[in-house]
Write a structure and sequence with these properties.
about 35% helix, about 140 residues, globular, three-stranded parallel sheet, alpha/beta
Length: about 140
Amino acid sequence: MPTSGNPNAHIVLRGGSGGPNYKASDIANTEDKLNSRNLGPAIMVDCSHANSNKDHNLQANVINDVLDQISAGNTSINSLMIESNLEAGNQSIAAPDQLKYGVSITDKCIDWSTTERLLRSTHARLKKINGRPLNSTM
């Protein structure tokens, strides 16, 4: 039996076999589907996985596209998710003494310095879009 859904939920767009799904048309389609179920549009965009074609170095492109959408007035995108670790890339699971500290054993990640740069530039851009300081310690 179908349920009426959770009105406080959000949906995560991470792309899929059809490719990325973070572009404005994808967001609008998701908004329509949520609204048709009387669910407020609350969308998180995963900047990794299929949205970056599984290339961790392309996560910044996704972030910038989403920030363009927010700058153009989108209010349904409420969060971003990035794949980040201390060091870039990933590694296969091995004996503990063969693993490199700070490198993912699952998906490829951006490194900490790239993460910090992206977070700071995203914060600055959102601050400019909103025209007021954001609640943050950055």
